[in-house]
Fold these 3 entries.
Entry 1:
Amino acid sequence: MNLPIVSRVSTQSVDPADRIEFWEEHNRQALVGLTCSSYSQDGLLATETNVELGDLRLAEIAGNEHVIERTPRTCQTLPKDSIFVTLLTAGCGVFFHEGGCVTLRTGDLILYDTRRPYLFGFPSPMRQLLVDIPREVFAAQCAPGEVSAPILLGKGSAAEGAQASALEAVLADWVTGQGGEDSVSTQATVLDLVRTLAAPRLGGSAPPAVLSQLAVAKDYIARHLADPGLSSGRVAEAIGVSARHLSRIFQPTGVSPSRYILEQRLGKARQVLADPSSRHLTIAEIAHCWGFASQAHFTRVFRSRFGRTPGETRPFIN
């Protein structure tokens, strides 16, 4: 997939004395106006990739110990009318706002308004995925209410946790270019997941839509793919729907839930087989690793899917 990358920058090659100014200027143009300071003696070491997703912009940001701040003055002089959804994928952070502070750990998801001042501190190396949602898009497709204070999402229930995990998977796939879906359906999935998570906290109701349910189901399958007990029935039970409804959820993919599971297992097994570094693994071990009950069954379905046996897929080494 060819990603519409807006920018990709790093402070690594910038003189340490100029890194803060460089980072602030880059973010002022690419994302949001802010001030920055570093905790590290090495200065700010950070990277950022900005990618377009329809009306949205995604950013993957990694860095060492640092603080970013959007002061009241910055909000006035460099206005930004968006809702940010930030998922911390590594490290920890403290988010200070007018009403107090929120502590975040790896896997936490926070939603906040860029019109309001905030300070986000990272006392250790960090990585985050950020979704920039224009306010009019958020109001129309997620929740119409004001985001008067930051909202920590994904911790209220097991269902919330599953939705936050699915959102992380969708964002990570798109940012790294591994997502196979088009930008229209991916944007709709992201907004559906944000709506399902945020609307109840903002005084609305948001029954999960098919796109968000599909994302949750796919994420559950990806995380349990190696389990030989994984089945469509188990997926339906895990995401809280009937087997019949799960089949309806998967209709846009063109395959049944069971076939989707099989296709994912075969794809993973094929990647391992084609990797020269996996030559020490037997075909039976690879089959078992990806949930196949027997080598014979694995060989049969593999040949049916790819037109060649697992052994023929392995690279020839002299």
Entry 2:
Amino acid sequence: MTDHGNGRGPLHLAAAVDLPGTYEPGPYAELALLAERGALDFVTLGDSFARPGPDALAVAARIAPATGRVGLVPTVTTTHTEPFHVQAAVATLDWVSRGRAGWTLDVSATEAEARLFGRRGAAPPEELWREAGEVADVAALLWDSWEDDAEIRDVASGRFIDRDKLHHVDFEGRTFSVRGPSIVPRPPQGHPVRVVDATAPPAREVAARHADVALVRVASVRQADAARAELRGLAARSGRDPGTLRVFAALDVDLGGGECAAEPGHGGGPLPTAEGTVYRGGPVDLAELIADWHRAGAVDGFHLTPVEPRRDLERLVNGTVALLQHRGRFRTFYPGSTLRDHLGLARPANRHTAHTTHAALTGEPS
């Protein structure tokens, strides 16, 4: 493992704002605003067909007007859902939030969940993640089906769109087919940020090919370093620039017990459990762990899930994040207005205009 000084890039931080049993938007907005006060890159909202609760994407859209900078990343299940509707909903979230949207791609693997829809049975994880990759592919095609200046809104002529700047999509996947163009104009970010939990092997190829942010549940800096190297290697072999993939260590955090003086450093470190990797300790030791892992170049950032949402997120922002900011390890303000700005990711060019732009810059024929 190589020491990269201050890490391979700026430190990124994200947090979950899940509130089991809560259906009103107010408490979610309160937690998102708390995360925004700490300049966190984004907050996530979990979702699953296997448990009761509000639709995460709808909650994110509802709280978007109440927030101004923090990214909003709901979980979107790609199994049993219509890819055309998924991309339209995510694009709409990007418009509502003015460029702060992302989505965590997930799959639904149980027979009980399949019976909720009655369209097909459960399938192996490998098959479901291949389908998730195809959903990511067709979403990008549909987002690019509108050029950025396709909307003309010419009142005098009554023309809303320039039809020459809409592009046909005809996608055939293994389990679905989609025709376009989209019904939603190209999102402010071009492509809203894609997040994939790459801990399970079937998800890694999808993360390497499609994710802007990959989450890995690891219990040590060496595991984190190995996971990051593997994902970046897979990304390079798939033909993409591995520098465009951000790898976050995913930890559950329990900050209720104060600093753990009995064990030196990091409150004893995170521990693997059946539910995931859990850190138990205090805000100061957590700040030390975050700084050490990032300084070693093992991760680009952290996604932290509070065990007790309100208590632990408040201690995370007011304790851990404040200490990292005081030491110059984490920013004190947002570098831009979009989630891609926060993550240091360029806005993707539209595939239908990129060749024209290249020709204009180089003098080559388009």
Entry 3:
Amino acid sequence: MEPLTLTEAVGAEFAPETTYLDTSTCGLLPRRGVEAVRAAAELNATGSPDGGSGFDTVAAARASFARLVSVPGERVALGSAVAVHVGMIAASLPAGAEILCAEGDFASVVNPFAVRGDLKMRYAPLDTLAESVRPETTLVAFSAVQSADGRVADLAAVRAAAAVHGARTLVDATQAAGWLPFDAGGFDYTVTGAYKYLMAPRGVSFLTVAEEAQEALTPFHAGWMAGEDIWSSTYGPVAELARSARRFDEPPPSLPYVGAEQSLALLEEIGVESVRAHTTALAARFREGLVSLGHAPVPADSVVVATPGLAHRLDALTEADIVASVRAGYLRASFHLYNTDADVDRALDVLAG
């Protein structure tokens, strides 16, 4: 089967009733995902033996995500929220460990460490994060793409600096996975909320764990489904935890993963490189338009465009049925595969008014 083109995918899967420029807040669900969740819910309502879903759906979502971020499926754990995965990593660290974070990064990748109270928190500007790693650093925790302003981290530089000093790395790929080709295999841990650029329902998240990092992580969420043989693990202490990263699963909620299976399959059919080319071109068009209007968006090779001095224009966009957001004082617009040049131009017309 030939890969879907973006035009084919958008026509078949999306029908937004607004000019939607806010995927960094929440992605749109494709039609196939909506239909799959609806069918599963109906089965659940009618007493289907599997409750409207099954383990095969969860396994398919795990495998699909693994392919999208270029790691074996055995290194992927599932959950419902990024903060839950980060909390497990934070809880596994020894007292006194030094955590280096990017200044102003998203709370879910910072706060689980900060609330422990016995870890040494240190912060550095994103553009100097790599050179801020030092021998005392235990873990560098940062987002691949900043939620507030769309800046893209120098992943290779941070990874190299961490390796020199023996520090582990944790990357939040929530604002990256789905449009930015991303190899999770180069990092000890990655976490991804799937309801943005992966276009899954809320309640789906992924954790990847490097093989050499797995022994340092305690599977605090391990229930019966974390057993190597789940059907012999239903009562009492689990005799043997899964030999893969599945032992780190937070038991996944069924219905959101029904939708996730479909959304991830769609992205695989289109290809992330195609999504990147389309979306970064739209963002560049929007940035150029903003500059022509006398504004100065934050420089970034990103699908997220953040502009100071325009937060007060959000109401005007909303009145015109254009969905954007304000974060950290910036007007933030974000583009995905279902957006077009016409969406960009319509937003610029409103901002020029």
